Amino acid sequence: MAIAEKATFIDEAEIGRALETGLRRGVGEVREVLVKALEMKGLSMEDVAVLASISDPDLLGELFTAARRVKEHIYGRRLVIFAPLYVSNFCGNDCTYCAFRLRNKDVKRRALTQDEVSNEARILVESGHKRVLLVAGESYPNEGFEYVLKCIDSIYKTKSGPGEIRRVNVNVAPLGMDEFHALKDAKIGTYQLFQETYHRETYSRVHLVGKKRDFDWRVTVMDRAMSAGIQDVGIGVLFGLWDWRFEVLALMQHVRHLEQTFGVGPHTISVPRLEPAIGSEIATHPPKPVADIEFRKLVAIMRLAVPYTGIILSTRETAVIRRETFALGVSQISAGSRTNPGGYAEEEGGITEDGQQFSLGDHRSLDEVVRDIAGLGYVPSFCTGCYRLGRVGKDFMDLAKPGDIRMHCDPNALSSFEEYLSDYASQETRAVGERLINDTLATMDPKSRDVSRKLVERVRLGKRDVFV
Ligand code: SAM
Ligand code: SF4
Q: Is 316 touching ligand 1 by the criterion CB < 6 Å?
């Protein structure tokens, strides 16, 4: 099979037509799409355009209700937790929105040594994290791509007390086939990359220098990753650069292309919004700002359009927005994050936020975030079971689509949460968490309850890393 080299699957004219048609649809047609969405089989581009045109407050309420129902049915009350680990902020590109851009002289550059990477991983392990997203700028001084492979190895090798990082996801610049084969051998979880904007003209306006200027090389990256055998890929848009409706439809085209080519779509979609960044005018004044209400709308639409794809929200967002969007469809969140290389060690030493990529909207510790979301009734999950058992890519989706994945996710979420509570939580968080675990067990169907209770008991008796 020839690997795509051009972004022929992103068709701006088709997006334009769909958006225009969507705007002409009446209330009845919007409601038809909402009924279809509740079948949880996903939506077409045209359907998504219809939902994107909603402005009537009643219909908006109905959209949110539908998204809540789908989220609840597929994901229950679970929220997967991860932390980013920034290893280097050297970069050969000049993306006008990012503090790491080549010509920004106001940011202190740093590439962590392997000892420093291990130290960052240790701090994350000791706070209770099990999943890490490795992040780097697009330039690896001296060592080239080998540097990233060494960092992954250092993270996996770090052990502290009863803990370790069990899944390393990676967000680094687009790679060629050989590098993707090497990433697969390094046993990464998801390869993640955001297109930033699918709108070509905007893309060339905001990417001034470096390899990232090549729109086609970036947009075809998941074709190379999947051809090299990486089965879980994550796509995304940096919202605020171009009209969000266009971007959501383009995401749908990208999903459709991957499904048609590889039989499975992306494992996750990330929805970052532009945040202020040192040395970036555009980050403070986004050309196409996405208001909070529109942001909630786009999360709800994505939930209905691709019900089985995880939606990731980062600490770019405030605690308030994070809470609102959990209910609408977000299934994974970062917590306790630092976005500068060495940020966790600096924080431990009392230094803050030098050289960070963008401003954080949520500064709370992992323990505080866990307590907050558990208090809201969501089960923080540190589960890495599917990845470790090889339930990835199409195998994962084949279980997810008929709804069978909850047989695994629900018990594993509870056992991994119990592990967190026993080993890392403050007393206050532990009390909230134990109450939630007991309440959740009480409301489960008998079969899941039996499996879950046994797993949780094993953790309470001292077993670690148990999953089904
Ligand atoms: N250098 C690689 C790249 O550009 O794909 C990977 C790492 S980059 C640090 C990760 C992501 O950060 C980018 O894809 C972009 O979407 C996001 N980002 C950059 N500047 C941002 C800002 N000001 N606010 C929010 N997100 C930002
Ligand atoms: Fe470099 Fe990525 Fe930032 Fe662009 S977004 S300047 S490629 S780190």
A: yes
